[in-house]
Design brief:
The protein has one domain: Phosphoglycerate mutase-like (Rossmann fold, 3-Layer(aba) Sandwich), CATH 3.40.50. It contains four helices and six strands, in the order βαβαβαβαββ. The chain has 149 residues and is α/β, with parallel strands linked by helices.
Length: 149
C-alpha cells in the first residue's frame, strides 16, 4: 500500500485546539501542496482526515471527497493510525491529513520498526510504500514541502 502523510498547514494559535483555523499562510501552503498531490495521487486514493478544523481545511484544498477519522485527532497514537488505515495489509493508496508528532511517529515506525521523533513540516507530505513482505517496513518514495514547490 502507499501511505501518504500530509501534515496540516499553518494554523492560528488559540483554543480550543480542535477549532484552530488555518492562517492565510496556511491556506496558501495547503493550496500549493494540494496542487502537487493532485498531479501525483492515484485517482482512487482514500483520503482520511483528522476532525480538527485545521486538518479539515487543509484537506478541503485538495477538492476530493474525504472521510473524517477520529483515530487521526491530535494526540493520536501510531498504532491507532495504522489500524485505521489497515496498514500494512491494505492495498491501493491512502492519504492521511493529520498532526505532528503523530505523523512523525508513524513515518518512523514504518521506516525503521520503532517509533521515533521524525519531523513532518507544516503542510509537508511524506509518501511511503509499505511492503507487506518486509514486516511492514516501508520505502520512502518522496518528501515534499510547500517551500520546495
Amino acid at each position: 500500500m502507499d501511505l501518504i502523510l500530509w501534515r496540516h498547514a499553518d494554523a492560528a494559535e488559540g483554543s480550543p485546539d480542535h477549532q484552530r483555523a488555518l492562517t492565510e499562510k496556511g491556506r496558501r501552503q495547503a493550496k500549493r501542496m494540494a496542487q502537487w498531490l493532485e498531479q501525483h495521487l492515484p485517482e482512487h486514493a482514500v483520503v482520511l482526515v483528522s476532525p480538527a478544523l485545521r486538518a479539515q481545511e487543509t484537506a478541503q484544498a485538495l477538492k476530493r471527497p474525504f472521510e473524517t477519522c477520529e483515530a487521526l485527532a491530535p494526540g493520536a497514537d501510531c498504532a491507532a493510525v495504522l489500524t485505521a488505515v489497515g496498514a500494512p495489509k491494505a492495498q491501493g493508496a491512502t492519504l492521511i491529513v493529520g498532526h505532528q508528532p503523530t505523523l512523525g511517529h508513524v513515518a518512523s515506525f514504518l521506516l525503521t520498526g520503532a517509533e521515533g521523533e521524525l519531523s513532518v513540516k507544516k503542510a509537508g507530505v511524506w509518501w511511503l510504500s509499505v511492503r507487506r513482505d518486509k514486516k511492514g517496513l516501508a520505502l520512502l518514495r518522496a518528501v515534499m514541502t510547500p517551500e520546495l514547490l
